[in-house]
Amino acid sequence: MYVSRPEHLLHVLACNATATPAAPFRLLLTDARLDALCARVAKYYSLRRFVAATGEPASVWTRRRDGRDPYFHYSSGLQAVVMALGVCDQVSMFGFGKKAGVKHHYHTNRSKETEVHDYEGEYQFYGDLQTRPEAVPFLGEAPGFVLPPVKLYW
């Protein structure tokens, strides 16, 4: 589980307090370094998209965000992809992107996407991973890291 708001820590505490020997499944928090990398990637692509679409400086992005909740966070899908980039020899992505009327998550009836994620920015990141991996920022900063090939199946 990743903590994107302070109240998420309460969920972790509540769930972990109910673990028993018969059901010992506890929530684990993701590593803060993974969270920081995901946040950098998501914000970079969102800022780049904002500047290209509006012509305004990046400093306006946090104040505006199209009048929506100024809170912003990457999706769990982006986090899963970044994790896979670090542990897999190649990454195949299925189920990213969405047609009108399709549910947001397979396990809910919600069709509207949450406003705290910039899915279009994340889709640009996924596209760059496949077609222009050299253009993806931040991932090559770790010495010896080699980005694996990525294939999208929209």
UniProtKB/TrEMBL annotation:
It holds the Pfam family Glyco_transf_29. It is a single-pass type II membrane protein. GO terms for cellular component: Golgi membrane. InterPro entries: Glyco_trans_29, GT29-like_sf. The keyword Glycosyltransferase applies. It is found in: Golgi apparatus membrane. The keyword Transferase applies. One of its GO terms (molecular function) is sialyltransferase activity. Keywords: Glycoprotein, Glycosyltransferase, Golgi apparatus, Membrane, Signal-anchor, Transferase, Transmembrane, Transmembrane helix. Belongs to the glycosyltransferase 29 family. PANTHER family: BETA-1,6-GALACTOSYLTRANSFERASE GALT29A, BETA-16-GALACTOSYLTRANSFERASE GALT29A. This is Sialyltransferase-like protein 2. The gene is STLP2_0.
